[in-house]
Design brief:
There is one protein chain. The protein has 407 residues and is of the alpha/beta class. The protein contains 13 helices and twelve strands. A six-stranded antiparallel sheet has the order 4-3-6-1-2-5, with helices on one face. A six-stranded parallel sheet has the order 10-9-8-7-11-12, sandwiched between helices. α10 links the parallel β8 and β9 (326-332). It is globular and about 70 Å long. The relative contact order is 0.10. It binds protoporphyrin IX containing FE.
């Protein structure tokens, strides 16, 4: 445990970390990858370029500093990050590397504010924070390996089926090459996927939500092809999967992970809200609800650009035919002429609170949402202003976690 003096020093650095936290972590990554280029095999280079990972790490370090005398308060965050770390294969021996690098970056960026006393206090605090992560992750490793069909590290899977779902989303049905069983998972969880990409200096790992219900002989991921835009680079892995990975090819997967999962102990109505490819974890939840509690009231709301980019539409319609408690609504931002003719959508434009209240009877429900960050901010703001309890509004970021609060 930290002594009071150390806690006092750590807390005294909170204001400077607040203002310079991102700068520290940016410098941290520069040093980390210069001294340990092998770690470029695990980190997502696109997240680095966009600065999202820097912000996520800065937030985590800052949160740890604020709660240094009560780390239990940030245990849910530690677990969420722990799932990601476990999924990527981060091990205890990596922590001292990160700790040393973080201190060097702090010394450089904070300048005079980083006195020996401050650095000493942070070294001690980092040790405690790292131990908390290592402990949580050790349990996750044990669980992932020991469960039936579980495994350690990356396991080879064959693409059994490749299925185009929309102009931008394609599903891959994956079965283990060794022919063994596969671990079950909780709907909403993801897997880390490592394709074999010829000509690349480093390996590239990405997380994709499992889009089918558990209990099948395969895992299904549904991948959006991320073409580049002026504000972001093209998705190296997603484009590779779409263009070069075909039936019969191999992908390497770690066991399912993630804490954005369906609470099956709750029997209240469920509202699943997704934007774009954010539908994948919610579709897994929807299918699981159908298989396990078909009478439960479920509203599935999906926002897409238009019918062309709308994936797995027929699957949702089929579920609604089969299960009496299900209703679904499709919202298109810019419907095509064909969409209008075939009346394939229920709302044009963005989802707003008035419309939401017209299709969801009460805020006393379990809400789950996932989609692009602006979509999530809008949904979060709507749910808050409707009086939905914080614990009833669960969400998942694709990519490094951020904050919805500034919405
Ligand atoms: C992801 C914090 C230690 C490697 C993350 C994220 C946070 C974080 C906040 C983002 C989680 C998300 O995506 O939602 C921390 C903290 C650490 C720590 C506070 C120390 C106490 C480590 C270590 C390694 C590592 C030792 C290994 C060298 C990664 C990687 C990702 C990640 C590869 C995924 C980033 C990406 O997609 O590029 N970590 N981490 N972390 N962390 Fe850590």
């Amino acid at each position: 445990m930290l002594n009071e003096q150390t806690i006092r020093i750590i807390k005294s650095t909170v204001p400077v970390l607040e203002s310079k936290g991102t700068e520290v972590t940016k410098r941290f990554y520069e040093i980390l990858f210069t001294e340990h280029p092998e770690l470029l095999n695990v980190f997502n280079h696109a997240n680095q370029k966009q600065g999202r990972q820097q912000t996520a790490l800065a937030n985590a370090v800052y949160a740890a500093a604020v709660h240094i005398d009560n780390l239990a308060a940030i245990l849910p965050v530690v677990k969420q990050i722990g799932h990601k770390h476990r999924s990527l294969g981060i091990k205890p021996e990596h922590y001292p590397i990160v700790g040393r690098t973080l201190l060097t970056a702090m010394r450089e960026v904070l300048g005079e504010a980083a006195t020996d006393e401050v650095l000493q206090a942070w070294e001690t605090a980092y040790g405690i924070i790292a131990d908390a992560f290592i402990g949580v992750e050790a349990e996750m490793y044990t669980q992932a390996e020991r469960q039936a069909g579980g495994w350690e590290g990356f396991r080879a899977f064959r693409v059994e089926r490749k299925q185009k779902e929309s102009s931008v989303i394609t599903s891959f049905y994956l079965v283990p090459l060794d022919g063994g069983a596969i671990a079950t998972f909780e709907p909403g969880q993801y897997v880390s996927v490592k394709p074999e990409m010829p000509g690349e200096t480093y390996t590239h790992i990405r997380q994709y939500s499992l889009s089918d219900a558990p209990g099948k002989p395969y895992y299904r991921i549904s991948v959006k092809r991320e073409d580049g835009a002026p504000d972001r680079p093209a998705g190296k892995v997603s484009v590779f999967l779409h263009e070069h990975v075909n039936e019969g090819d191999t992908l390497w997967l770690t066991a399912p992970a993630g804490d954005f999962t369906l609470d099956t102990s709750d029997s209240r109505p469920v509202v699943l809200l997704s934007g774009g490819v954010g539908l994948t974890p919610l579709l897994s939840m929807l299918k699981t609800l159908g298989e396990t509690t078909p009478d439960r009231q479920v509203t599935f709301i999906h926002a897409a650009l238009s019918g062309e980019t709308h994936a797995m539409r027929a699957e949702v319609e089929e579920l609604a035919r089969r299960y009496p408690g299900f209703s679904y609504y499709f919202c298109y931002q810019s419907p095509t002429a064909a969409d209008r003719e075939e009346r394939t959508f229920h709302k044009e434009g963005y989802i707003d609170l008035e419309w939401l209240q017209s299709v969801v009877p009460s805020p006393d429900a379990a809400f789950y949402f996932c989609g692009p960050v602006p979509f999530m901010k809008t949904v979060n703001r709507m749910l808050q202003s409707w009086g939905v309890r914080k614990e009833d509004a669960r969400y998942e970021f694709f990519g490094p976690s951020g904050s919805l609060e500034e919405a």
